[in-house]
Amino acid sequence: MDGSLTTSNVTFDNNGEVRVDSGPLTLGGGGTSTGQFNTAEGTTITFASGSPVIATGATFGGSGEWRITGARVDFAGDTSISRLAISSGWMNGDGTVHITDRMDWTGNAELRGNGTTAIDATAILALSGDSDKGLHNRTLQIEGSCMVAGTGTLWLQSGSSIVTAPGSLV
User: Fold this and answer.
1) Helices assigned H by DSSP within the chain
2) CB atoms < 10 A from the CB of 73, how many?
3) Do the Cβ atoms of 61 and 40 come closer than 8 Å?
4) Residue 30 · residue 7 · CB < 8 Å
5) 46, 52, 56, 72 - which has most CB atoms within 10 Å?
């Protein structure tokens, strides 16, 4: 895709490949994805609203950025994402989401579900802003670095845990 595309209240099922070569792709709605999402440098795929499901088999490639800005994204299967920004909404589900480069967690956003969000050894987790953030029944595993700025509180609820690996920097 070249240019800009925004969907609103549309079910979007990706069982093939979504490739963003320039501009943003903003998805507002639900659907289930088992296919590939690929972004070029400087591009974004944003989950803005709805409850999309990222199922087993879905992959995220490329050097662009993925954003959650209000959606309740359910990671039902394990996957890896290079760069993720979450400013509102939820990252939910039973799957393990590996962050391989950087995760920016700002705003009033929550990580939920029985799964794990894993910050890989070469990756950075940046928590910033004045809004509270929530970790609900999910494991946050930090193998890389974690930077904290701002006045927001990180709430751990319902059996949540933060696990730091030897050599990680928090």
Assistant:
1) none
2) 22
3) no
4) no
5) 52
Question: Structure tokens of 23?
Answer: 């501009």
Residue 76 CA to residue 93 CA, distance in Å, equals 5
How far is Cα 35 from Cα 123, in angstroms, rounded to an integer? 24
Q: Residue 37: what pLDDT?
A: 94
C-alpha–C-alpha distance, residues 86 and 63, integer Å: 17
Position 81: which residue type? I
Beta bridge partners of residue 125, listed in sequence order = 103, 146
Q: Which residues in the chain land under pLDDT 70?
A: 1-5
Q: What is the pLDDT of residue 168?
A: 87
- Residues 6+ away with beta carbon under 8 Å from 84: 65, 66, 67, 68, 97, 99, 102, 103, 104
